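Study this fold:
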Amino acid sequence: MDNPPPTPIVDVQVDAADVEAALRGDVRDGLTAQPKDLPPKWFYDHAGSVLFDEITRLEEYYPTRAERQILLRESDAVIEIVGADTFVELGAGTSDKTRALLDSAVAHGHLQRFIPFDVSETFLRDSCNKLAQEYPSLTIHGVAGDFDRHIPLIPSGGRRLVAMLGGTIGNYAPVARAHFLDTLAATMHTGDHLLLGTDLVKDRSRLVDAYDDASGVTAAFNKNVLAVINGHLGADFDLQRFDHVARWDDQAEWIEMHLRSQESHNVLIPSLGLDIGFEEGETIRTEISAKFRQDGVERELASAGLEMVAWYTDDDGDFGVSLSRR
């Protein structure tokens, strides 16, 4: 009779009360600022996660397909370079795309431990249980935490490969991005590697289409942040009074997503004691998604004390995955 897989370990660095407090602070600060702004992490309640999964399958949304192609083709090469016994995935979700890396690492015989890191404890526990079934030879050690506060609390030890995929690094503006990479690099030791997914600069129309699909899924995803605020903070946002807008900023080389008010009106958020006024045409910026060039990625990694050792792109050159080492 086969032995059951080991029970996954889950460290909880952020609980529901922490999440609620962070949401309250971000909404208060963001909606009382000029211009108004909300962090993109609040898209991802259950409904938002389902919508984003749908986005990744849209014809217009190339990044997921491009990155998956790279990982399927290059996973053996990556694993041969790093020889890691511990694999950390930041923003793990279901760890769907990293299955290629996990399979290669297990096949090479080095990997002993997988550490998925995600903000949702419930989602993470479910994912860890599935991973334990699929990879019984590995210790699965999940961490429920926030990128901006809990990176130093990720378990250390062994030779680690840290992966941050999906272009998530592009959600940070340059100063915040440099701080994040500095913080991450400070937790790494000589011989540790970082695998970083970055969407690349390309034709403006393709970039805008990827964030403003014809079927309206991205619009629904964007508006879902207002539904999150309604549900958690008792606000009375009318989602039909806002339009989804995607813009390309040539100077910053990033996409911005906004919610634009169709008319002058007020929104009440009783739990925060706020009465927020919107002018016709006023927007809330809900996301930036920076696009990169290889030399820029290499410079930013070097500034954090990381040396790029490999650069991979998909067949069309749409997406880049860099491998760097401490």
The chain has ten helices and 14 strands. Residues 63-82 form the longest helix (20 residues). Residues 34-59+204-290 form one domain. The CA atoms of residues 95 and 116 lie 8 Å apart.
